[in-house]
Protein backbone atom coordinates (compact mmCIF):
# COMPACT_ATOMS: atom_id res chain seq x y z
CA UNK A 1 0.00 0.00 0.00
CA UNK A 2 2.86 2.39 0.84
CA UNK A 3 4.31 1.89 -2.66
CA UNK A 4 0.95 2.72 -4.25
CA UNK A 5 0.67 5.96 -2.26
CA UNK A 6 4.27 6.89 -3.10
CA UNK A 7 3.68 6.26 -6.81
CA UNK A 8 0.49 8.36 -6.77
CA UNK A 9 2.16 11.28 -5.00
CA UNK A 10 5.16 11.13 -7.34
CA UNK A 11 2.88 11.12 -10.38
CA UNK A 12 0.93 14.13 -9.10
CA UNK A 13 4.20 15.99 -8.48
CA UNK A 14 5.45 15.13 -11.97
CA UNK A 15 2.24 16.39 -13.56
CA UNK A 16 2.41 19.62 -11.57
CA UNK A 17 5.99 20.17 -12.73
CA UNK A 18 4.88 19.58 -16.33
CA UNK A 19 2.11 22.16 -15.91
CA UNK A 20 4.52 24.68 -14.36
CA UNK A 21 7.00 24.27 -17.20
CA UNK A 22 4.26 24.73 -19.81
CA UNK A 23 2.89 27.87 -18.14
CA UNK A 24 6.26 29.58 -17.73
CA UNK A 25 7.28 28.70 -21.28
CA UNK A 26 4.00 29.98 -22.74
CA UNK A 27 4.40 33.17 -20.71
CA UNK A 28 7.89 33.71 -22.17
CA UNK A 29 6.69 33.11 -25.74
CA UNK A 30 3.70 35.43 -25.36
CA UNK A 31 5.79 38.22 -23.90
CA UNK A 32 8.62 38.15 -26.43
CA UNK A 33 6.75 37.07 -29.55
CA UNK A 34 3.39 38.79 -29.08
CA UNK A 35 4.13 41.41 -26.39
CA UNK A 36 1.28 40.19 -24.24
CA UNK A 37 0.66 37.71 -21.44
CA UNK A 38 -1.79 36.24 -18.96
CA UNK A 39 -2.74 38.17 -15.83
CA UNK A 40 -1.84 36.31 -12.67
CA UNK A 41 0.33 33.63 -14.30
CA UNK A 42 3.21 34.30 -11.90
CA UNK A 43 0.99 33.94 -8.83
CA UNK A 44 -0.63 30.80 -10.26
CA UNK A 45 2.84 29.30 -10.78
CA UNK A 46 3.73 30.07 -7.16
CA UNK A 47 0.56 28.37 -5.93
CA UNK A 48 1.22 25.30 -8.08
CA UNK A 49 4.81 25.19 -6.83
CA UNK A 50 3.52 25.11 -3.24
CA UNK A 51 1.13 22.32 -4.30
CA UNK A 52 4.05 20.40 -5.86
CA UNK A 53 6.06 20.67 -2.65
CA UNK A 54 3.06 19.60 -0.58
CA UNK A 55 2.33 16.60 -2.82
CA UNK A 56 5.87 15.23 -2.89
CA UNK A 57 7.01 16.27 0.60
CA UNK A 58 5.87 12.98 2.21
CA UNK A 59 8.22 11.12 -0.17
CA UNK A 60 11.17 12.64 1.70
CA UNK A 61 10.55 10.49 4.78
CA UNK A 62 13.20 7.96 3.80
CA UNK A 63 16.23 7.80 1.53
CA UNK A 64 18.75 10.55 0.67
CA UNK A 65 16.00 13.17 0.31
CA UNK A 66 15.25 12.89 4.05
CA UNK A 67 18.63 14.55 4.74
CA UNK A 68 19.10 12.47 7.88
CA UNK A 69 22.23 12.48 10.03
CA UNK A 70 22.13 8.83 11.13
CA UNK A 71 25.57 8.34 12.69
CA UNK A 72 24.01 7.57 16.08
CA UNK A 73 20.77 5.91 15.00
CA UNK A 74 22.55 3.30 12.90
CA UNK A 75 23.98 1.86 16.12
CA UNK A 76 20.49 1.11 17.44
CA UNK A 77 18.62 -2.15 16.80
CA UNK A 78 16.92 -2.14 13.39
CA UNK A 79 13.44 -2.25 14.90
CA UNK A 80 13.97 0.93 16.94
CA UNK A 81 16.34 2.80 14.63
CA UNK A 82 13.99 5.64 13.69
CA UNK A 83 11.74 5.72 16.76
CA UNK A 84 12.92 9.13 17.96
CA UNK A 85 13.18 10.48 14.41
CA UNK A 86 9.61 9.47 13.65
CA UNK A 87 8.48 11.40 16.72
CA UNK A 88 9.76 14.60 15.10
CA UNK A 89 8.02 13.66 11.84
CA UNK A 90 4.73 13.11 13.70
CA UNK A 91 5.00 16.53 15.37
CA UNK A 92 5.80 18.17 12.02
CA UNK A 93 2.86 16.43 10.35
CA UNK A 94 0.47 17.51 13.10
CA UNK A 95 1.69 21.12 12.91
CA UNK A 96 1.05 21.18 9.17
CA UNK A 97 -2.30 19.43 9.52
CA UNK A 98 -3.86 21.43 12.36
CA UNK A 99 -1.96 24.69 11.79
CA UNK A 100 -3.05 24.59 8.15
CA UNK A 101 -6.62 23.81 9.17
CA UNK A 102 -6.67 26.77 11.56
CA UNK A 103 -5.46 29.12 8.83
CA UNK A 104 -8.09 27.77 6.44
CA UNK A 105 -10.79 28.44 9.05
CA UNK A 106 -9.59 31.96 9.86
CA UNK A 107 -8.25 33.32 6.60
CA UNK A 108 -10.54 35.28 4.34
CA UNK A 109 -9.99 37.18 1.16
CA UNK A 110 -9.71 36.40 -2.51
CA UNK A 111 -6.56 36.52 -4.60
CA UNK A 112 -7.10 39.56 -6.88
CA UNK A 113 -5.01 38.01 -9.67
CA UNK A 114 -6.56 34.53 -9.60
CA UNK A 115 -10.01 35.08 -8.13
CA UNK A 116 -9.49 32.12 -5.79
CA UNK A 117 -9.75 32.00 -1.97
CA UNK A 118 -6.39 32.72 -0.33
CA UNK A 119 -6.76 29.77 2.06
CA UNK A 120 -6.22 27.23 -0.72
CA UNK A 121 -2.47 27.80 -0.76
CA UNK A 122 -2.25 27.07 2.97
CA UNK A 123 -4.60 24.11 2.69
CA UNK A 124 -2.02 22.35 0.50
CA UNK A 125 0.34 22.03 3.48
CA UNK A 126 -2.48 20.88 5.75
CA UNK A 127 -3.17 18.00 3.36
CA UNK A 128 0.55 17.33 3.13
CA UNK A 129 0.80 17.00 6.91
CA UNK A 130 -1.92 14.36 6.87
CA UNK A 131 -0.14 12.46 4.10
CA UNK A 132 3.16 12.57 6.02
CA UNK A 133 1.50 10.80 8.95
CA UNK A 134 -0.38 8.32 6.75
CA UNK A 135 2.64 7.40 4.64
CA UNK A 136 4.89 7.13 7.69
CA UNK A 137 2.41 4.69 9.24
CA UNK A 138 2.18 2.63 6.04
CA UNK A 139 5.96 2.48 5.64
CA UNK A 140 6.63 1.41 9.22
CA UNK A 141 3.87 -1.21 9.16
CA UNK A 142 5.24 -2.67 5.92
CA UNK A 143 8.66 -2.86 7.61
CA UNK A 144 7.26 -4.74 10.59
CA UNK A 145 7.81 -1.82 12.98
CA UNK A 146 4.30 -1.51 14.37
CA UNK A 147 5.47 -1.22 17.98
CA UNK A 148 7.99 1.46 17.04
CA UNK A 149 5.26 3.34 15.15
CA UNK A 150 2.91 3.22 18.14
CA UNK A 151 5.60 4.57 20.47
CA UNK A 152 6.51 7.36 18.05
CA UNK A 153 2.91 8.33 17.46
CA UNK A 154 2.13 8.48 21.19
CA UNK A 155 5.27 10.52 21.93
CA UNK A 156 4.71 12.90 19.02
CA UNK A 157 1.04 13.44 19.87
CA UNK A 158 1.89 14.03 23.54
CA UNK A 159 4.48 16.67 22.63
CA UNK A 160 2.09 18.35 20.20
CA UNK A 161 -0.70 18.53 22.79
CA UNK A 162 1.59 19.60 25.65
CA UNK A 163 3.34 22.56 23.99
CA UNK A 164 0.33 24.96 24.00
CA UNK A 165 -0.26 24.19 27.68
CA UNK A 166 3.31 24.99 28.76
CA UNK A 167 4.86 28.37 29.45
CA UNK A 168 8.45 27.96 30.60
CA UNK A 169 10.16 31.21 31.60
CA UNK A 170 13.90 30.57 31.86
CA UNK A 171 15.10 34.07 31.10
CA UNK A 172 17.01 32.66 28.13
CA UNK A 173 16.25 33.51 24.50
CA UNK A 174 13.78 31.20 22.80
CA UNK A 175 16.22 30.73 19.91
CA UNK A 176 18.51 28.79 22.25
CA UNK A 177 15.84 26.14 22.79
CA UNK A 178 15.02 26.29 19.10
CA UNK A 179 18.59 25.31 18.24
CA UNK A 180 18.75 22.66 20.98
CA UNK A 181 15.54 20.94 19.83
CA UNK A 182 16.64 21.06 16.19
CA UNK A 183 19.99 19.59 17.25
CA UNK A 184 18.24 16.77 19.07
CA UNK A 185 16.25 16.15 15.90
CA UNK A 186 19.43 15.92 13.86
CA UNK A 187 21.05 13.54 16.34
CA UNK A 188 17.96 11.34 16.32
CA UNK A 189 18.14 11.14 12.48
CA UNK A 190 14.92 13.07 11.93
CA UNK A 191 14.45 14.45 8.40
CA UNK A 192 16.01 17.90 8.51
CA UNK A 193 12.86 19.86 7.53
CA UNK A 194 10.88 17.99 10.20
CA UNK A 195 13.53 18.83 12.82
CA UNK A 196 13.27 22.53 11.88
CA UNK A 197 9.48 22.56 12.00
CA UNK A 198 9.21 20.64 15.28
CA UNK A 199 11.84 22.92 16.86
CA UNK A 200 9.91 26.05 15.84
CA UNK A 201 6.76 24.55 17.38
CA UNK A 202 8.40 23.47 20.65
CA UNK A 203 9.95 26.95 20.97
CA UNK A 204 6.40 28.25 21.61
CA UNK A 205 6.62 26.80 25.12
CA UNK A 206 9.79 28.83 25.76
CA UNK A 207 8.45 32.16 24.55
CA UNK A 208 8.88 31.69 20.80
CA UNK A 209 7.22 34.50 18.88
CA UNK A 210 5.44 32.33 16.30
CA UNK A 211 2.18 30.55 17.21
CA UNK A 212 1.25 27.42 15.29
CA UNK A 213 -0.72 29.06 12.43
CA UNK A 214 2.07 31.62 12.01
CA UNK A 215 4.62 28.81 11.69
CA UNK A 216 2.64 27.34 8.80
CA UNK A 217 2.04 30.71 7.13
CA UNK A 218 5.73 31.62 7.43
CA UNK A 219 6.64 28.26 5.91
CA UNK A 220 4.31 28.89 2.97
CA UNK A 221 5.69 32.42 2.56
CA UNK A 222 9.24 31.02 2.52
CA UNK A 223 8.50 28.78 -0.44
CA UNK A 224 6.20 31.26 -2.26
CA UNK A 225 8.82 32.98 -4.41
CA UNK A 226 8.79 32.90 -8.19
CA UNK A 227 12.59 32.65 -8.21
CA UNK A 228 12.42 29.25 -6.49
CA UNK A 229 10.67 27.72 -9.51
CA UNK A 230 14.09 27.73 -11.16
CA UNK A 231 15.16 24.90 -8.86
CA UNK A 232 12.86 22.17 -10.26
CA UNK A 233 13.52 23.41 -13.80
CA UNK A 234 17.31 23.18 -13.41
CA UNK A 235 16.99 19.74 -11.78
CA UNK A 236 14.83 18.70 -14.70
CA UNK A 237 17.35 20.04 -17.22
CA UNK A 238 20.14 18.02 -15.60
CA UNK A 239 18.07 14.84 -15.57
CA UNK A 240 16.97 15.26 -19.17
CA UNK A 241 20.52 16.03 -20.26
CA UNK A 242 21.58 12.61 -19.00
CA UNK A 243 18.51 10.89 -20.44
CA UNK A 244 19.13 12.43 -23.88
CA UNK A 245 22.68 11.09 -24.11
CA UNK A 246 24.12 14.63 -24.29
CA UNK A 247 25.97 14.03 -21.03
CA UNK A 248 27.78 11.11 -22.67
CA UNK A 249 28.92 13.42 -25.47
CA UNK A 250 30.31 15.79 -22.85
CA UNK A 251 32.35 12.89 -21.46
CA UNK A 252 33.75 12.11 -24.91
CA UNK A 253 34.73 15.74 -25.53
CA UNK A 254 36.44 16.00 -22.13
CA UNK A 255 38.32 12.79 -22.86
CA UNK A 256 39.71 14.18 -26.12
CA UNK A 257 41.05 17.23 -24.25
CA UNK A 258 42.68 15.70 -21.16
CA UNK A 259 42.43 11.92 -21.48
CA UNK A 260 46.09 11.64 -22.56
CA UNK A 261 47.46 13.42 -19.47
CA UNK A 262 48.70 11.89 -16.23
CA UNK A 263 45.68 10.45 -14.39
CA UNK A 264 43.84 11.04 -17.65
CA UNK A 265 40.59 9.31 -16.71
CA UNK A 266 40.45 11.18 -13.39
CA UNK A 267 41.11 14.46 -15.21
CA UNK A 268 38.35 13.54 -17.66
CA UNK A 269 36.03 13.02 -14.71
CA UNK A 270 36.93 16.52 -13.47
CA UNK A 271 36.50 18.24 -16.82
CA UNK A 272 33.20 16.45 -17.45
CA UNK A 273 32.00 17.76 -14.10
CA UNK A 274 32.93 21.29 -15.18
CA UNK A 275 30.97 20.86 -18.41
CA UNK A 276 28.03 19.16 -16.69
CA UNK A 277 27.86 22.03 -14.18
CA UNK A 278 26.78 24.33 -16.98
CA UNK A 279 23.48 22.51 -17.33
CA UNK A 280 22.67 20.75 -14.08
CA UNK A 281 23.25 23.09 -11.12
CA UNK A 282 22.98 20.10 -8.77
CA UNK A 283 26.03 18.51 -7.18
CA UNK A 284 23.96 15.54 -6.03
CA UNK A 285 22.86 14.86 -9.62
CA UNK A 286 26.45 15.04 -10.84
CA UNK A 287 27.66 12.76 -8.05
CA UNK A 288 25.08 10.15 -9.03
CA UNK A 289 26.01 10.51 -12.72
CA UNK A 290 29.76 10.25 -12.03
CA UNK A 291 29.38 7.31 -9.65
CA UNK A 292 27.53 5.28 -12.27
CA UNK A 293 29.57 6.46 -15.29
CA UNK A 294 33.18 6.96 -14.17
CA UNK A 295 33.60 4.85 -11.03
CA UNK A 296 33.63 1.45 -12.81
CA UNK A 297 36.11 2.70 -15.40
CA UNK A 298 38.38 4.26 -12.77
CA UNK A 299 38.49 0.98 -10.86
CA UNK A 300 39.14 -0.94 -14.07
CA UNK A 301 42.08 1.39 -14.78
CA UNK A 302 43.66 0.42 -11.47
CA UNK A 303 42.41 3.10 -9.08
CA UNK A 304 41.57 1.83 -5.61
CA UNK A 305 37.76 1.86 -5.14
CA UNK A 306 37.93 4.43 -2.33
CA UNK A 307 40.18 6.71 -4.43
CA UNK A 308 37.90 6.39 -7.45
CA UNK A 309 34.84 7.25 -5.35
CA UNK A 310 36.66 10.18 -3.73
CA UNK A 311 37.51 11.65 -7.15
CA UNK A 312 33.86 11.43 -8.23
CA UNK A 313 32.63 13.04 -4.99
CA UNK A 314 35.23 15.83 -5.00
CA UNK A 315 34.65 16.85 -8.62
CA UNK A 316 30.89 16.94 -8.01
CA UNK A 317 31.34 19.91 -5.67
CA UNK A 318 31.72 22.14 -8.73
CA UNK A 319 28.11 21.76 -9.87
CA UNK A 320 26.73 24.05 -7.19
CA UNK A 321 29.41 26.67 -7.82
CA UNK A 322 29.73 26.86 -11.62
CA UNK A 323 26.50 28.39 -12.99
CA UNK A 324 23.67 27.68 -13.11
CA UNK A 325 23.83 26.89 -9.40
CA UNK A 326 20.96 25.96 -7.12
CA UNK A 327 23.06 27.06 -4.13
CA UNK A 328 23.30 30.59 -5.55
CA UNK A 329 19.55 30.61 -6.14
CA UNK A 330 19.00 29.75 -2.47
CA UNK A 331 21.40 32.48 -1.37
CA UNK A 332 19.74 35.05 -3.63
CA UNK A 333 16.31 34.09 -2.27
CA UNK A 334 17.55 34.45 1.32
CA UNK A 335 19.55 37.67 0.94
CA UNK A 336 18.12 39.42 -2.17
CA UNK A 337 21.55 39.56 -3.83
CA UNK A 338 21.63 39.74 -7.62
CA UNK A 339 21.39 36.25 -9.13
CA UNK A 340 23.25 37.35 -12.27
CA UNK A 341 26.16 38.80 -10.30
CA UNK A 342 26.41 35.70 -8.13
CA UNK A 343 26.48 33.45 -11.19
CA UNK A 344 29.29 35.49 -12.75
CA UNK A 345 31.23 35.19 -9.49
CA UNK A 346 30.57 31.46 -9.58
CA UNK A 347 32.39 31.18 -12.92
CA UNK A 348 35.60 32.53 -11.39
CA UNK A 349 35.30 30.51 -8.18
CA UNK A 350 34.42 27.29 -10.01
CA UNK A 351 37.36 27.70 -12.40
CA UNK A 352 39.73 28.23 -9.48
CA UNK A 353 38.39 25.18 -7.64
CA UNK A 354 38.68 23.05 -10.79
CA UNK A 355 42.30 24.15 -11.27
CA UNK A 356 43.16 23.27 -7.67
CA UNK A 357 41.48 19.88 -8.02
CA UNK A 358 43.39 19.25 -11.26
CA UNK A 359 46.70 19.76 -9.43
CA UNK A 360 45.56 17.53 -6.56
CA UNK A 361 44.54 14.76 -8.96
CA UNK A 362 47.82 15.05 -10.87
CA UNK A 363 50.03 14.76 -7.81
CA UNK A 364 47.94 12.20 -5.90
CA UNK A 365 47.64 9.75 -8.81
CA UNK A 366 49.30 6.47 -7.88
CA UNK A 367 50.33 5.86 -11.48
CA UNK A 368 49.75 7.57 -14.83
CA UNK A 369 46.94 6.06 -16.85
CA UNK A 370 46.71 8.47 -19.77
CA UNK A 371 45.64 7.14 -23.13
CA UNK A 372 46.73 8.20 -26.60
CA UNK A 373 46.44 11.89 -27.47
CA UNK A 374 43.34 12.67 -29.54
CA UNK A 375 43.88 14.17 -32.96
CA UNK A 376 42.65 17.62 -33.89
CA UNK A 377 39.96 16.07 -36.07
CA UNK A 378 38.73 13.90 -33.18
CA UNK A 379 38.55 16.94 -30.92
CA UNK A 380 36.59 18.94 -33.48
CA UNK A 381 34.18 16.04 -33.97
CA UNK A 382 33.69 15.62 -30.21
CA UNK A 383 33.20 19.38 -29.79
CA UNK A 384 30.55 19.47 -32.49
CA UNK A 385 28.67 16.61 -30.82
CA UNK A 386 28.90 18.27 -27.38
CA UNK A 387 27.95 21.80 -28.47
CA UNK A 388 24.21 21.41 -27.74
CA UNK A 389 25.00 20.63 -24.10
CA UNK A 390 27.94 23.06 -23.78
CA UNK A 391 25.95 26.01 -25.07
CA UNK A 392 23.14 25.47 -22.61
CA UNK A 393 24.91 26.88 -19.56
CA UNK A 394 26.27 29.86 -21.48
CA UNK A 395 22.83 30.71 -22.85
CA UNK A 396 21.26 30.48 -19.40
CA UNK A 397 23.84 32.66 -17.64
CA UNK A 398 24.00 35.21 -20.47
CA UNK A 399 20.21 35.45 -20.57
CA UNK A 400 20.07 36.14 -16.82
CA UNK A 401 23.09 38.44 -16.69
CA UNK A 402 21.96 40.70 -19.55
CA UNK A 403 18.36 40.82 -18.38
CA UNK A 404 16.90 39.05 -21.40
CA UNK A 405 14.98 36.59 -19.22
CA UNK A 406 14.44 36.14 -15.50
CA UNK A 407 16.22 33.34 -13.66
CA UNK A 408 13.06 31.22 -13.57
CA UNK A 409 12.39 31.80 -17.27
CA UNK A 410 15.98 30.91 -18.14
CA UNK A 411 15.63 27.67 -16.18
CA UNK A 412 12.37 26.90 -18.00
CA UNK A 413 14.04 27.50 -21.36
CA UNK A 414 16.91 25.20 -20.32
CA UNK A 415 14.47 22.47 -19.28
CA UNK A 416 12.50 22.79 -22.52
CA UNK A 417 15.69 22.65 -24.56
CA UNK A 418 16.86 19.46 -22.86
CA UNK A 419 13.33 18.03 -23.12
CA UNK A 420 13.49 18.40 -26.90
CA UNK A 421 16.95 16.77 -26.91
CA UNK A 422 15.65 13.88 -24.82
CA UNK A 423 12.54 13.33 -26.96
CA UNK A 424 14.63 13.43 -30.12
CA UNK A 425 17.03 10.87 -28.67
CA UNK A 426 14.57 8.41 -27.13
CA UNK A 427 11.17 9.26 -28.55
CA UNK A 428 9.60 7.70 -25.44
CA UNK A 429 7.43 10.11 -23.41
CA UNK A 430 7.05 7.52 -20.63
CA UNK A 431 10.77 7.48 -19.84
CA UNK A 432 10.87 11.27 -20.07
CA UNK A 433 8.03 11.57 -17.56
CA UNK A 434 10.07 9.45 -15.13
CA UNK A 435 12.66 12.24 -15.23
CA UNK A 436 9.92 14.81 -14.55
CA UNK A 437 8.79 12.76 -11.57
CA UNK A 438 12.31 12.44 -10.14
CA UNK A 439 13.04 16.15 -10.60
CA UNK A 440 9.73 17.06 -8.93
CA UNK A 441 10.42 14.84 -5.91
CA UNK A 442 13.95 16.24 -5.50
CA UNK A 443 12.68 19.80 -5.89
CA UNK A 444 9.97 19.18 -3.29
CA UNK A 445 12.58 18.07 -0.76
CA UNK A 446 14.57 21.27 -1.36
CA UNK A 447 11.41 23.41 -1.34
CA UNK A 448 10.25 21.91 1.97
CA UNK A 449 13.66 22.65 3.46
CA UNK A 450 13.44 26.26 2.25
CA UNK A 451 9.95 26.63 3.69
CA UNK A 452 10.67 25.11 7.11
CA UNK A 453 13.89 27.11 7.41
CA UNK A 454 11.82 30.32 7.18
CA UNK A 455 10.20 30.17 10.68
CA UNK A 456 13.53 28.94 12.07
CA UNK A 457 15.32 31.95 10.58
CA UNK A 458 12.54 34.30 11.72
CA UNK A 459 12.94 33.20 15.33
CA UNK A 460 16.71 33.66 15.11
CA UNK A 461 16.12 37.16 13.77
CA UNK A 462 13.75 37.96 16.68
CA UNK A 463 16.59 37.29 19.10
CA UNK A 464 18.95 39.46 17.00
CA UNK A 465 21.48 36.73 16.25
CA UNK A 466 22.81 38.90 13.41
CA UNK A 467 23.52 41.61 16.00
CA UNK A 468 25.36 39.06 18.13
CA UNK A 469 27.56 38.19 15.16
CA UNK A 470 28.25 41.89 14.58
CA UNK A 471 29.27 42.32 18.21
CA UNK A 472 31.61 39.33 17.96
CA UNK A 473 33.16 40.88 14.86
CA UNK A 474 33.62 44.16 16.72
CA UNK A 475 35.43 42.31 19.51
CA UNK A 476 37.83 40.91 16.88
CA UNK A 477 38.52 44.36 15.47
CA UNK A 478 35.56 44.91 13.18
CA UNK A 479 37.59 44.85 9.97
CA UNK A 480 37.16 42.80 6.82
CA UNK A 481 39.73 40.23 7.96
CA UNK A 482 37.87 39.69 11.24
CA UNK A 483 34.57 39.26 9.40
CA UNK A 484 35.99 36.73 6.96
CA UNK A 485 37.77 34.83 9.72
CA UNK A 486 34.70 34.61 11.95
CA UNK A 487 32.36 33.89 9.03
CA UNK A 488 34.49 31.06 7.71
CA UNK A 489 34.81 29.55 11.17
CA UNK A 490 31.04 29.74 11.67
CA UNK A 491 30.37 28.27 8.23
CA UNK A 492 32.94 25.51 8.66
CA UNK A 493 31.39 24.55 12.00
CA UNK A 494 27.79 24.78 10.75
CA UNK A 495 28.60 22.77 7.65
CA UNK A 496 29.61 19.82 9.80
CA UNK A 497 26.09 19.42 11.18
CA UNK A 498 23.76 21.24 8.77
CA UNK A 499 22.64 20.46 5.26
CA UNK A 500 24.23 22.85 2.75
CA UNK A 501 20.92 24.40 1.72
CA UNK A 502 19.82 24.88 5.32
CA UNK A 503 23.11 26.54 6.26
CA UNK A 504 22.80 28.97 3.33
CA UNK A 505 19.23 29.87 4.24
CA UNK A 506 19.95 30.34 7.95
CA UNK A 507 23.45 31.85 7.98
CA UNK A 508 23.49 33.89 4.77
CA UNK A 509 21.16 36.63 6.09
CA UNK A 510 22.96 36.65 9.45
CA UNK A 511 26.53 36.99 8.17
CA UNK A 512 25.99 39.22 5.14
CA UNK A 513 25.18 42.48 7.04
CA UNK A 514 28.44 42.21 9.00
CA UNK A 515 30.39 41.65 5.77
CA UNK A 516 28.80 44.67 4.07
CA UNK A 517 29.47 46.82 7.15
CA UNK A 518 33.15 45.80 7.00
CA UNK A 519 33.41 46.92 3.37
CA UNK A 520 33.43 43.47 1.73
CA UNK A 521 31.72 43.23 -1.64
CA UNK A 522 28.44 41.41 -0.93
CA UNK A 523 28.63 39.31 -4.11
CA UNK A 524 32.18 38.19 -3.36
CA UNK A 525 31.11 37.33 0.17
CA UNK A 526 28.13 35.39 -1.17
CA UNK A 527 30.44 33.34 -3.39
CA UNK A 528 32.68 32.62 -0.40
CA UNK A 529 29.65 31.44 1.61
CA UNK A 530 28.58 29.01 -1.11
CA UNK A 531 32.11 27.67 -1.73
CA UNK A 532 32.71 27.19 2.01
CA UNK A 533 29.49 25.26 2.48
CA UNK A 534 29.83 23.22 -0.72
CA UNK A 535 33.14 21.88 0.58
CA UNK A 536 31.12 20.27 3.36
CA UNK A 537 29.63 17.93 0.82
CA UNK A 538 32.87 16.01 1.47
CA UNK A 539 33.18 16.28 5.26
CA UNK A 540 31.75 14.02 7.98
CA UNK A 541 29.26 13.57 9.49
CA UNK A 542 26.84 14.98 6.86
CA UNK A 543 28.99 14.76 3.68
CA UNK A 544 26.03 14.29 1.33
CA UNK A 545 28.18 13.84 -1.81
CA UNK A 546 30.19 11.12 -0.11
CA UNK A 547 27.01 9.32 0.94
CA UNK A 548 25.53 9.56 -2.57
CA UNK A 549 28.68 8.05 -4.09
CA UNK A 550 28.82 5.43 -1.33
CA UNK A 551 25.22 4.42 -1.92
CA UNK A 552 25.80 3.83 -5.63
CA UNK A 553 29.29 2.29 -5.49
CA UNK A 554 28.90 0.33 -2.21
CA UNK A 555 32.23 1.71 -0.97
CA UNK A 556 32.24 2.44 2.78
CA UNK A 557 31.65 6.12 3.62
CA UNK A 558 34.49 5.91 6.16
CA UNK A 559 36.91 4.82 3.43
CA UNK A 560 35.69 7.60 1.13
CA UNK A 561 36.07 10.27 3.82
CA UNK A 562 39.71 9.20 4.24
CA UNK A 563 40.47 9.07 0.51
CA UNK A 564 38.96 12.48 -0.20
CA UNK A 565 41.44 14.37 2.04
CA UNK A 566 43.87 15.49 -0.75
CA UNK A 567 40.99 16.96 -2.73
CA UNK A 568 39.50 18.54 0.39
CA UNK A 569 42.83 20.27 0.99
CA UNK A 570 42.83 21.56 -2.61
CA UNK A 571 39.34 23.00 -2.21
CA UNK A 572 40.25 24.67 1.09
CA UNK A 573 43.22 26.29 -0.65
CA UNK A 574 40.83 27.63 -3.30
CA UNK A 575 38.65 29.05 -0.50
CA UNK A 576 41.73 30.75 0.98
CA UNK A 577 42.54 32.35 -2.38
CA UNK A 578 38.95 33.62 -2.73
CA UNK A 579 39.09 35.16 0.75
CA UNK A 580 42.45 36.81 -0.02
CA UNK A 581 41.02 38.21 -3.25
CA UNK A 582 38.02 39.63 -1.36
CA UNK A 583 40.35 41.35 1.12
CA UNK A 584 42.59 42.84 -1.55
CA UNK A 585 39.89 44.02 -3.96
TrEMBL record:
Main location: membrane
Domain TRAP C4-dicarboxylate transport system permease DctM subunit: 185-581
Membrane topology summary: Multi-pass membrane protein
Keyword Transmembrane: yes
TM spans (from-to): 12-34, 46-67, 79-99, 119-138, 147-168, 174-206, 226-250, 270-296, 308-333, 339-361, 382-404, 410-427, 439-462, 468-493, 500-520, 526-548, 560-584
Subcellular localization: Cell inner membrane
Function comment: Part of the tripartite ATP-independent periplasmic (TRAP) transport system.
Protein's recorded name: TRAP transporter large permease subunit
Species in which this protein is naturally found: Mycoplana rhizolycopersici
Taxonomy of the source species: Bacteria, Pseudomonadati, Pseudomonadota, Alphaproteobacteria, Hyphomicrobiales
